[in-house]
Amino acid sequence: MLQEITAPDYDVDFDVVYATDRNFTGTPVYQRAAFYLLPEAAALLRRAIAIAAPLGYRLKLLDGFRPSEAQWKLWNHTPDPEFIADPRRGSPHSMGAAVDLTLLDAASGAELDMGTPFDDLRPLSHHGVTDGISAEAQKNRVILMGIMTSAGFDFFRNEWWHYQLFNARARYPVLTDAAAGTRMM
Q: Where's the active site on this chain (predicted)?
């Protein structure tokens, strides 16, 4: 059901932040750094890579499939429905239907300024914010949104880094680590 996204099959960089302590919980959420998506989302990711490359950008993947056990860990740490999906409702991440990512300059490999770090749980992370975000960061967010929506993804208005399949909650089940067979937890 889910397929693992790996290099060199996908020309992207990886930083599975939830497998480290560099996330908003301060501790690793995943036992193993791995990146999985539904085949439909993986196909759109390939399209996004192809759109970004001739423009001089690469994608850096931060999170994909998130087992429901991990969603509960995030929710129990910060039960804020503005940024964290209530696990009882389900997250598109827990369906393999969402990807968190940022842009890199393809020539230098440097991350582009997006105005806030990944998982910055403040309104400054919302799409369309102009106060408190530099013009350069606003431009970079729009470029990322253009790439991802042109590839066929929907966006989440509260997180510049989050893209998902349309109507994921109506189309896909929430998966545990055991059901998905990812051995991430």
A: 159
Please identify which of the residues 4, 40, 136, 159 carries the catalytic annotation. Answer: 159
CA 19 to chain centre: 14
Q: Which domains does the chain have, with CATH numbers?
A: 3-180 (3.30.1380.10)
pTM of the shown model: 0.97
162 is in an annotated binding site: yes
Q: For the segment 87-118, what is each residue's pLDDT rounded down to a tens digit?
A: 999 999 999 999 999 999 999 999 999 999 99
Q: Is 82 a catalytic residue?
A: no
Q: How far apart are CA 30 and CA 121, in angstroms?
A: 20
